[in-house]
C-alpha cells in the first residue's frame, strides 16, 4: 500500500468530518471556547490514538506469532506538548498493560521494542519531534470473574 488518501470536510464552526479511503468516518471538533460543540475528538487526540492503535496492533500481532496466550492489551498514553505554536508533542510515554496466561516477559519486552524501533510507522514519525518511551506490565489471567 504505497499511497493513502483521506478527506476532511468542514461541517460547521470548528467541526469537521474525516473520511478514510476504506470508507470510515470520524467527527473532529473543538472545545466550546474555540467555537466548537465538543462533538468529537480533537485532531491532536486522534493523532495520539492513531499512534496507540498502530503500536498496539504490532504488540498483539507479534505476541500471537510468538505463541503467547495473550487475552488483553491496553496502551495507556501520556503526552506532553510544547507551550508555543506549533504545539508539537515533545514527550510521549506508552504504558502497555498486557494480560494473558504465563506470558513471557522477554517476549513482551521484545514485542514492545520491535514495535517502537522497527514496525510502528506512527511512533517512528512522531519520534522525529517527541521523545517516545515505553514500558509494560503483565497481568496474569485468572479464572475468577471480577
Q: Please tell me what the overall shape is.
A: elongated
Amino-to-carboxy terminus distance? 43 Å
- CATH homologous superfamily classification of the largest domain: K homology (KH) domain
How is the CATH topology of the largest domain named? GMP Synthetase, Chain A, domain 3
Task: Write the H/E string, N to C.
Answer: EEEHEEHHE
The side-by-side strand order for the widest beta sheet comes to 1-2-3
* Helical content class: 25-40%
- The average pLDDT is 96
Total beta strands: 6
Strand content: 35-45%
Broad structural category: alpha+beta
Question: Whole-number radius of gyration?
Answer: 18 Å
Low-pLDDT windows of residues:
none
Oligomer: single chain
Reported for the largest beta sheet, the result is: 3 strands, antiparallel
Number of domains: 2
Q: What top-tier CATH class of the largest domain fits best?
A: Alpha Beta
Please describe what this structure looks like:
There is one protein chain. With 146 residues, this protein is of the alpha+beta class. The protein has helices at residues 43-65, 105-119, 121-126; strands at 6-12, 15-20, 25-28, 69-81, 89-101, 131-140. Strand 1 and strand 2 form a beta hairpin. Helix 1 (43-65) packs across helix 2. The longest helix is centred in the middle third of the chain and has 23 residues, at 43-65. It starts with 5 loop residues before the first strand and ends in a 6-residue tail after the last strand. The relative contact order is 0.15. The mean pLDDT is 96.
